[in-house]
Amino acid sequence: MNKLSRSAKVFQLFNILFLGLLALSMLLPILHVLAKSLSGVQALTNSEVGLLPVDFTLLNYQYVLSNPAILRAFAVTIYITVVGTIINLVMTSSLAYPLSREEYKGRKIFLVMVLLTMIFPAPLIPLFILVKELDMMNSLWSLMIPGAISAFNFFVMRSFFQQIPKELIEASRIDGCGELRILWNIIVPLSKPVMATVGLFYAVVHWNTYMHALYFINEPRLYPLQVKLRQMLLLDQVETGNEMFSDLLSAPEGIQMATVIVAMIPIIAVYPFLQKYFVKGMMLGSIK
After folding, report:
1. Which residues belong to the signal peptide in this entry (predicted)?
2. Of the candidates 122, 127, 191, 203, the residue with the CA atom closest to the CA atom of residue 160
3. What is the pLDDT of residue 77?
């Protein structure tokens, strides 16, 4: 086994320290938010909370999980995340597959068109006019359809499809498979890594939907979670009709932080199950 040189050891130590500090800079704010969400009203009022809870309580989480407005915002966000991600994967794979095959004529023109959308994204006003003319204002479709295909995710998926052997596709055609059947019965099952990777990218975007919801949604009942968080954090719109939670209103920061933590949990919980596909998909999608 080769021993590391002194300079290599110093460089390795520097990397460990740098990455450790970088990780701490990301972790400490989350620990602070978690501590506030688990702290009592008096401790929050007196700004006594650091990285550990003071006067431990779960009352803030009880409020969040029993508030109809917050639960409805969660339901809206879950809906647009699940349905939107499915739409994204279907449409992105349907475009990426034909443009990954050399036998399709004119594919370079479409590749340039997709590339232009990544270099010059649609301005807000034309996008707003388009959504309005399509009668999607105050509709959850306005949060899913306009961004159905991301140019970056398209190129990642196309790069992966290009690595699938031509012989496999040609053998399927000889057996009588049409292009749609080849795509959904052969290509997609072989593409779990890139599907998981791209799906996670799309899901995170939908889960964090904010600006488009502000532009296109005017009805409070259709607000996704991030807009509800904005109301709570920036506008201090924290209300309760339950006497059990009346004391919490004197220090609404605990409720706000509890909502932030609950909003983070689904993505954090899903990632470990997709991690092996995620890493493999990123590697295979970037190397040809």
Report:
1. none
2. 191
3. 92
Alpha helix segments (H runs only) across the chain: 6-37, 41-45, 59-64, 68-96, 107-119, 124-133, 151-162, 166-174, 179-182, 192-207, 211-216, 225-233, 253-286
Q: How far apart are CA 262 and CA 173, in angstroms?
A: 49
Tell me if residue 36 falls in helix, strand or coil: helix
- The per-residue pLDDT of the chain, averaged, comes to 82
> How far apart are the C-alpha atoms of 150 and 202, rounded to whole Å?
8
Given its phi and psi angles, is residue 55 left (phi above 0), alpha (psi -120 to 50 degrees) or beta?
Answer: left
Kindly state the greatest CA–CA separation across the chain.
75
- Tokens 């009592």 sit at which residue? 40
**CATH class for the domain made up of 68-239:** mainly alpha
CA 226 – CA 234 distance, rounded (Å): 12
Closest CA to 69 of 221, 205, 201: 221
Instruction: Give the position of tokens 């799906």.
Output: 199
What is residue 81's predicted lDDT score, i.e. its pLDDT? Answer: 92
Domain borders along the chain are 68-239
Three-state SS across 117-145?
HHHCCCCHHHHHHHHHHCCCCCCHHHHCC
User: pTM for the whole thing?
Assistant: 0.79
